[in-house]
Amino acid sequence: MEKSSSLLVHFDKATPALANEIKEALEANDDSLKIDAMKKAIMLLLNGENLPQLFITIIRYVLPSEDHTIQKLLLLYLEIIDKRDSNGKVLPEMILICQNLRNNLQHPNEYIRGVTLRFLCRLNETEIIEPLIPSVLSNLEHRNSFVRRNAILAVMTIYKLPQGEHLLVDAPEMIEKVLSSEQDASAKRNAFLMLFTCAQDRAVNYLLTHVDNIPEWGALLQMVVLELIRKVCRTNRGEKGKYIKIIISLLNAPSTAVIYECASTLVSLSSAPTAIRAAANTYCQLLQSQSDNNVKLIVLDRLNELKASHRDIMVEMIMDVLRALSSPNLDIRRKAIDIALELITPRNIDEVVQTLKKEVVKTQSTEIERNGEYRQMLVQAIHSCAIKFPEVASTVVHLLMDFLGDSNVASALDVIVFVREIIETNPKLRVSIITRLLDTFYQIRAARVCSCALWIIGEYCLSLSEVESGISTIKQCLGDLPFYTAPEEAESTEFSKKQQPVNSFTVSSRRPAILADGTYATQSAASETATSDRSLVRGTLASPSNLRSLILTGDFFLGAVVSCTLTKLVLRLEEVQPSKVEVNKAAASVLLIMVSMLQLGQSSFLPHQIDNDSYDRIVLCIRLLCNTGDEARKIWLQSCRQSFVKMLADKQFHETEEIKAKAQTSHAQPDDLIDFYHLKSRKGMSQLELEDEVQDDLKRATGEFTKDVDNGNKLNRILQLTGFSDPVYAEAYVTVHHYDIVLDVTVINRTKETLQNLCLELSTMGDLKLVERPQNYTLAPESSRQIRANIKVSSTETGVIFGNIVYETSNVHERTVVVLNDIHIDIMDYISPANCADVAFRNMWAEFEWENKVAVNTIIQDEKEFLNHIINSTNMKCLTAPSALDGECGFLAANLYAKSVFGEDALVNVSIEKQEDGKLSGYIRIRSKTQGIALSLGDKITLKQKGGS
Question: Does the pTM exceed 0.70?
Answer without folding.
Answer: no
